[in-house]
């Protein structure tokens, strides 16, 4: 059973199968159906055996009609959903959660955490969403000081990446290349255009990656994989396969777990950014496409 503040038989939310709902459990028993509610006020449920179970909502919640969009409980739309362990989920709903407090000081976001481990996250950009989700998942088992240090490091990286505001992602000029990266400001030779980051992997883990399209070897046994890091603009740089047209190069920094994208010559506004992937990138592709190799 699901109840909403201000709902009636004629005026109630139209929930579809699969809808994600943030609600409170008001009754859970082994031999009875579980009852939940989206009401933000005290409610009473009858067990059918002349027994009433009062359930009190958190005292800081004010009653809001479900139609206003201001109710604490209700359907969660948009955003990003991921799973956390039950232990991590319980720590996230505590009044004092180190990782959420640290993240909240750096990035604006909305979060709904279920004790079943389902987490809903919404922020102003996909880059912020990925950063917050990764920080939450990586915070399990860390001390408050370690959480604060981790968030500070990721926030510095976010600010550094946002300084790559001089580039934008749109359709590449190369045939069948998909998206590409373009300059929205001018760059001189030696300027850092943007930064290539990703999931940090050791050699053994890097060898297990099935799709190595975004895998970069930094050196010193360190690899980064930007395949799922859609907010990293450098991952959209294409290789035009022409040395005279390449205008950037990767400056690999294994100790910092990143690679700077540096301009090798003057780049005009509107120029597409091109880098040499190297022969070892194209060799596996050409072996698997003998009738259509990239030259």
UniProtKB/TrEMBL annotation:
Annotated GO CC locations? cytoplasmic exosome (RNase complex); nuclear exosome (RNase complex)
Q: What is the lineage of its organism?
A: Eukaryota, Sar, Stramenopiles, Oomycota, Saprolegniomycetes
The UniProt keywords, alphabetically, are:
Exosome, RNA-binding
Q: What is this protein called?
A: SET domain-containing protein
Taxonomically, the superkingdom here is: Eukaryota
One GO MF term attached to the UniProt entry: RNA binding
Q: Which InterPro entries match?
A: Exosome_RNA_bind1/RRP40/RRP4, KH_dom_type_1, KH_dom_type_1_sf, NA-bd_OB-fold, RRP40_KH-I, SET_dom, SET_dom_sf
CDD domains (alphabetical): KH-I_Rrp40 (cd22526)
Enumerate the spans annotated as SET domain: 165-278
The GO biological-process annotations, alphabetized, read as: CUT catabolic process; exonucleolytic trimming to generate mature 3'-end of 5.8S rRNA from tricistronic rRNA transcript (SSU-rRNA, 5.8S rRNA, LSU-rRNA); nuclear polyadenylation-dependent rRNA catabolic process; poly(A)-dependent snoRNA 3'-end processing; TRAMP-dependent tRNA surveillance pathway; U4 snRNA 3'-end processing
Task: Show which residues constitute the signal peptide.
Answer: none
Its localization reads: Nucleus
């Amino acid at each position: 059973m699901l109840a909403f503040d201000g709902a009636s038989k004629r005026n109630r939310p139209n929930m579809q199968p699969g809808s994600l709902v943030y609600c409170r459990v008001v009754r859970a028993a082994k031999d009875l159906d579980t009852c939940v509610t989206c009401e933000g006020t005290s409610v009473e449920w009858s067990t059918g055996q002349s027994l009433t179970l009062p359930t009190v909502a958190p005292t800081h919640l004010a009653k809001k009609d479900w139609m206003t969009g201001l109710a604490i409980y209700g359907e969660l739309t948009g955003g990003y959903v991921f799973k956390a362990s039950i232990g991590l989920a319980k720590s996230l709903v505590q009044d004092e959660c180190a990782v959420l407090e640290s993240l909240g000081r750096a990035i604006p976001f909305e979060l709904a955490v279920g004790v079943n481990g389902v987490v809903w996250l919404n922020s102003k950009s996909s880059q912020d969403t990925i950063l917050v989700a990764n920080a939450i998942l990586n915070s399990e088992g860390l001390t408050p000081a370690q959480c604060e240090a981790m968030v500070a490091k990721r926030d510095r990286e976010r600010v550094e990446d946002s300084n790559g505001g001089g580039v934008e992602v749109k359709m590449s000029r190369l045939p069948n290349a998909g998206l590409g990266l373009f300059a929205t400001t001018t760059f001189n030779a030696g300027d850092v255009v943007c930064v290539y980051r990703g999931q940090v992997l050791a050699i053994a883990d890097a060898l297990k990656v099935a799709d190595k399209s975004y895998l970069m070897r930094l050196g010193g046994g360190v690899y980064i994989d930007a395949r799922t890091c859609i907010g990293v603009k450098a991952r959209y740089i294409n290789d035009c396969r022409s040395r005279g047209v390449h205008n950037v190069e990767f400056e690999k920094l294994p100790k910092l777990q990143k690679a700077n994208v540096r301009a090798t010559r003057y780049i005009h506004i509107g120029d597409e950014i091109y880098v040499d992937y190297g022969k070892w990138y194209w060799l596996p592709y050409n072996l698997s496409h003998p009738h259509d190799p990239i030259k």
